[in-house]
From TrEMBL:
Family named by the database record: Belongs to the LOB domain-containing protein family.
Domain (LOB): residue spans on this chain: 5-106
Signal sequence region: none
Protein name: LOB domain-containing protein 12
Highest rank taxon of the organism: Eukaryota
């Protein structure tokens, strides 16, 4: 910074803020707590090295991440951000479960208000189109391959059970 007031980093470390101070653009003098917490968790030297290794356009995001992680580490020294993420994932799971229960309850209420009456098709006994070729009633409306399998099975079982009877 090199001007009137040193950046938060130089102020905390009690050194003169040079024009090319790597911390100055990211740690303003009016927010000393931001650098203090990052320094406490990561150390000024490590943060300086990290920032120097990054391209300039990525440094602001890196500082933002460091501040977030440092705050999380102060709150939860063991798990840090991972603890916060796990907590939020558990909360999402619980909310999804509550949503599923609520949707099931809504469905139950709708079903109670709109009773479903099963419709049984009326069979005209004069119309023989509901019978299969072998004279047995057709109760299922299945796909052609399934009905062929059922039809073939019925023919085999009829021939073995009824022998040479004519239908």
């Amino acid at each position: 910074m090199g001007g009137n007031s040193p950046c938060a980093s130089c102020k905390l470390l009690r050194r003169r803020c040079a024009k090319d101070c790597i911390f100055a653009p990211y740690f303003a003098p009016d927010d000393p707590h931001k650098f203090a917490i990052v320094h406490k968790v990561f150390g000024a030297s490590n943060v300086g090295k990290m920032l120097q290794e990054l391209p300039v356009h990525q440094r602001a995001d890196a500082v933002s991440s460091l501040v977030y992680e440092a705050n999380a580490r102060v709150r939860d020294p063991v798990y840090g951000c991972v603890g916060a993420i796990s907590y939020l994932q558990n909360q999402v799971s619980q909310l999804q479960m509550q949503l599923a229960v609520a949707q099931a309850e809504i469905l139950c209420v709708r079903m109670q208000h709109e009773p479903v009456t099963p419709t049984i098709p009326q069979i005209d006994t004069d119309d023989k189109s509901f019978l299969l070729q072998n004279g047995l009633p057709q109760y299922l409306n299945l796909g052609s391959s399934t009905s062929n399998v059922i039809h073939d099975s019925l023919q085999r079982s009829e021939s073995s059970i009824f022998g040479d009877m004519i239908f």
